[in-house]
Design a protein that fits this description.
It contains one helix and 29 strands. By secondary structure, the chain is mainly beta. The protein is globular, with a radius of gyration of 21 Å.
Length: about 325
């Protein structure tokens, strides 16, 4: 015979659930930061500093304006340049300080020096390009796509362009060594180590937004549903150190990840999400006093960190 649950049992169950919920809370910390003036209300999508003083940001409005911002004094002053008539999505510099920016409709810009003007090149494709990266030999990898589909990966080796297409949109790309590239996107994680074939990893369950390898063996991936993955063997195997698809795990819309070494890293995301780890992702601390902006990109160089947002915010912090 089944007995109805007593009031004491219900109270105990509620207390147990509350205790469990509290035990899952994340340590919160305060961070000293300042907001810098971008002189724009447009989305700022990507930030990259070549040294502690010289920085670059791109962004804009999807189909009407693309901007480049440059600073030579650590962000105390930003010079805004109207770069294109469509939004730019990513900016980066290779080991020779040659800069590249990519965006909507295959827009592709280059500057030979961090202080030069941007030069426009038209790629022979009209893809929406989302991210760019370089290896030590200054080869280029670019990924893109839109609407969760029409994924594309472009590789430039000695000026020769190789194009690979996928059903899923790609949003992040990173070299882990001179020969190995990793790309992520809508339910897809890819790896290539032979300059040609892409191998799809057996990983699903999130829109993977960004990938970063601080060394040849250790890498991290974050997803818009709150997944964090880590590899310690150059991307051959990935372990979920946070599974955003689990019922007990609250949704955390991550957008970017950046590590200064194998242990020290940052994740930023929507609604002011800013997490820091000092032990390779085993534990994360949540910055509790940051802006409520939707944070899209983070970059740290020489102990100086910068974050940009969908609302046009530029934020500077020190490690």
């Amino acid at each position: 015979m089944k007995h109805p649950t007593s009031k004491n049992q219900l109270n105990f169950l509620v207390l147990l659930l509350l205790t469990f919920a509290c035990s899952c809370g994340k340590d919160k910390i305060e961070l000293t930061w300042e907001k810098q003036n971008s002189n724009l209300n447009s989305t700022l999508t990507s930030v990259y500093f070549t040294d502690a003083n010289t920085g670059h940001i791109v962004g804009g409005d999807a189909w009407s304006a693309g901007y480049s911002l440059t600073t030579t004094d650590g962000g105390a002053n930003w010079l805004v340049d109207s770069l294109a008539n469509k939004k730019m999505n990513a900016v980066g510099f290779n080991s020779n300080d040659v800069g590249y920016a990519v965006g909507m409709d295959g827009y592709f810009f280059k500057k030979e020096d961090p202080l030069d003007d941007w030069t426009f090149f038209r790629l022979p494709r009209w893809d929406i390009l989302n991210e760019i990266c370089f290896n030590a030999e200054n080869n280029i990898a670019i990924v893109g796509g839109a609407g969760f589909q029409n994924g594309v990966a472009l590789r430039f080796d000695g000026g020769v362009m190789q194009v690979d297409t996928f059903e899923n949109e790609l949003s992040g790309v990173c070299y882990s060594d001179a020969n190995t590239i990793h790309a992520v996107g809508y339910g897809i994680v890819l790896r290539s180590d032979n300059g040609g074939t892409w191998e799809r990893q057996d990983i699903e369950g999130d829109f993977f937004r960004a990938v970063h390898f601080p060394s040849s063996e250790v890498g991290y991936v974050v997803g818009s549903a709150g997944t964090i993955m880590k590899s310690t063997d150059g991307g051959l195997k990935w372990d979920k150190i946070r599974d955003g698809s689990k019922i007990r795990v609250s949704n955390k819309p991550f957008r970017d990840v950046f590590f200064t070494d194998d242990e020290h890293g940052y994740i930023v995301g929507e609604d002011g999400l800013f997490w820091i780890t000092e032990n390779g992702g085993d534990d994360w601390k949540e910055v509790k006093n940051f802006s409520d902006d939707d944070l899209l990109s983070v970059h740290v160089v020489e102990g100086q960190g910068y974050v940009v947002s969908k609302q046009g915010g530029i934020f500077h912090f020190e490690e």
